Amino acid sequence: PPLRPFQITFDAATAVVDPAGPVLTRRMADLEGLFRDQRAWQELRGSEKVVYSVHSSPVPETPRELPQSITTISPGELSGELFMTKGHQHPDPQGEIYLGLTGTGGLLLFDGAEHAWLDMSPGTIGYIPPGWAHRSVNVSADEPYRFLAVYPGSAGHDYQWVLDHGMGARAVRLGDAFELVPYGG
Ligand code: 6PG
Ligand code: NI
């Protein structure tokens, strides 16, 4: 049955959503095949450290609904490559918006040919057009990066696409800043 109108409170400082939906926690073991340095990844694959977490609202991922979730990416890097989400395509190509909440990050987009990078900070809305794979990156060395995502309930998540096609670029620490390097490099 369709949902009734309801209110969701969230705490931008903790990412806690009330009423709460599913909470996902991603550690190194969940990020197989994604970091450039696979040897370093193997060594850390048993690590308990949380790379990112996703707190969803109770709005279900069903057609016509508009689910939301808050992602928090820890500061960190693996052989210089900044902590990031797995990244995915929406199998049913539909747009999505992100709103920066705390910290500083980036939104890496890839349509299979061209990549794009959007700097994200509190108050920034990043627009993901239909057909662009998307991955988020924490560019701060010491602060978590947190953002709200709002997406159509029928969009779905295709993670294999990123394993097959990459993301066009990688975000790598460069002194106090970072640079984008070619995906294979
Ligand atoms: C979505 C959003 C977003 C995303 C998380 C985690 O479509 O649901 O893009 O909520 O899922 O930021 O990123 P991954 O899904 O790539 O692990
Ligand atoms: Ni998405």
Radius of gyration: 16 Å
Order of helices and strands: EEEHEEEEEEEEEEHEE
| Residues in helices, as a percent range | under 10%
- Straight-line N-to-C gap: 49 Å
Largest sheet: 6 strands, antiparallel
Widest sheet, order of strands: 3-4-5-13-8-11
So how many helices?
A: 2
- CATH architecture annotation: Sandwich
**Classification by helices and strands:** mainly beta
Mean pLDDT over the residues: 96
What is the CATH homologous superfamily assignment? Answer: Jelly Rolls
The CATH first-level class comes to Mainly Beta
Draw up the topology in text.
Layout: E1 9-10, E2 17-18, E3 23-27, H1 38-44, E4 50-56, E5 68-73, E6 77-78, E7 81-82, E8 96-102, E9 105-110, E10 115-120, E11 125-128, E12 133-138, E13 145-150, H2 160-165, E14 169-174, E15 177-182
Antiparallel strand pairs: 1-2, 3-4, 4-5, 5-13, 6-7, 8-11, 8-13, 9-10, 9-12, 14-15
Bound molecules: 6-phosphogluconic acid and nickel (II) ion.
Residues 88, 90, 96, 134, 151 line the site of nickel (II) ion.
Characterise this structure.
This protein is mostly beta strands and about 180 residues long. The protein has a single domain (about 10-180), classed as Jelly Rolls (Sandwich). The chain has two helices and 15 strands. Strands 3-4-5-13-8-11 form a six-stranded antiparallel beta sheet, with no helix packed on it. A three-stranded antiparallel beta sheet has the order 10-9-12, with no helix packed on it. Strands 1-2 form a two-stranded antiparallel ribbon. A hairpin with a 2-residue loop joins strand 6 and strand 7. The protein starts with 8 loop residues before the first strand and ends with a strand. The model has no long low-confidence stretch (mean pLDDT about 95).
